[in-house]
Design a protein that fits this description.
Helix 2 packs across helix 3. It contains 7 helices and 9 strands. With 317 residues, the chain is of the alpha/beta class. It is 41% helix and 17% strand. The strands form 3 sheets. The chain has a 5-stranded antiparallel β-sheet with strand order 1-2-7-8-9. The termini are far apart. The relative contact order is 0.15.
């Protein structure tokens, strides 16, 4: 048998690299473990941060919701206690910043109230039996002309409301509701109405009649110029502005007072008496509460009936 002989240095050279590799592997494992732990800690801290922010946002949202609701209650109560309100203001709306809601609420609260019956009632163009109201239809077309909007807009809205399936205008009955509008937001669903025209119309129209769903009555104490001009083709811009000037000094206390305004003394004033009102009946209230960058808005329409209020519309966002 042949015995192999190796120098002693041979074994030393082979032993050292093996030991170095073992130590290197251990160091890599330790670093990898530390990196994993650091990653887990970072993820945990981030999740705590997100959870804290989410809870803080939720808490603020709850506070804002309560504050905004308080604003609605406050405005509705103030309107009810005032009893006979001829107008919210000569412009038809008021803005009420509330400095301090409660000791614990550190945000801002702004209440806006609008006379809903100062606007043209879109549902008035169709009687409750489903037939067209020609006077209201023509009045709305006058409003459209005053706002520089195409008159065909009236036909799209009538097709949406009337009971039949006969088109007054091309595609007017396309997915039409064939019932009165329940909320003003619905007009965005009407085919043929552009967003630009809706924006122009928004401040001048409503879906809430004065005393019934198809009522064409307008509160003359707060109606804007285009709505006043829509009442009769004989009313010019100058005549509409005379009404606003008259009521800015003193609101009309009864419909017959309209004949005291210059230009309305004769048959024109008499013909409008049954088509106008002088008291606020339905109010749109917007209550907006804000803390830092978090905001909550409640919008509602309230009908005043004696000492009580009936909510006709409610939206919270």
């Amino acid at each position: 048998m042949r015995i192999l002989k190796y120098p002693l240095d041979f074994f030393k050279c082979n032993a050292k690299p093996s030991l170095r590799n073992s130590k290197g592997s251990a160091l890599v494992a330790v670093l990898a473990t530390l990196a994993l732990i650091a990653s887990l800690v970072a993820e945990f801290v981030y999740s705590i941060y997100i959870s804290t922010n989410s809870f803080d946002y939720w808490l603020k949202a709850q506070q804002l919701s309560l504050a905004a609701r308080s604003g609605i209650v406050l405005a509705a109560k103030a309107m009810t206690e005032a009893k006979d309100i001829y107008s919210l203001s000569p412009t038809g709306y008021i803005i009420m910043p509330i400095e301090k809601v409660t000791d614990s609420f550190q945000g801002d609260l702004i209440i806006r109230a609008y006379d809903e019956n100062s606007r043209f009632n879109l549902n008035s163009m169709v009687f409750q039996n489903g037939q067209i109201n020609p006077e209201a239809y023509e009045a709305f077309k006058r409003l459209l002309r005053a706002l520089n909007i195409e008159e065909k807009t009236a036909d799209y809205i009538v097709d949406w409301i009337d009971r039949d399936r006969e088109e007054r205008i091309g595609e007017g009955e396309n997915e039409a509701k064939n019932n009165p509008l329940d909320a003003l937001d619905e007009i965005y669903q009407i085919k043929g109405l552009s967003r630009d025209n809706i924006v122009k119309l928004w401040e001048y129209v409503t879906v809430y009649g004065y005393d019934r769903v198809d009522s064409p009555v307008v509160n003359i104490n707060s109606a804007p110029v285009p709505v006043i001009m829509s009442l009769d083709e004989r009313i010019t811009l100058d005549m509409a502005e005379r009404i606003i000037q008259y009521r800015s000094l003193e609101p009309l206390k009864n419909t017959a007072d309209l004949t005291k305004v210059s230009g309305f003394e004769g048959t024109l004033g008499q013909s409008l008496i049954g088509r106008v009102a002088v008291r606020v009946r339905k109010i749109r209230i917007l209550s907006e509460a804000q803390i830092d960058r978090v905001r909550r808005t409640i919008e509602c329409v309230v009908e005043l009936q004696g000492s009580s209020q009936i909510v006709k519309y409610w939206s919270e966002r």
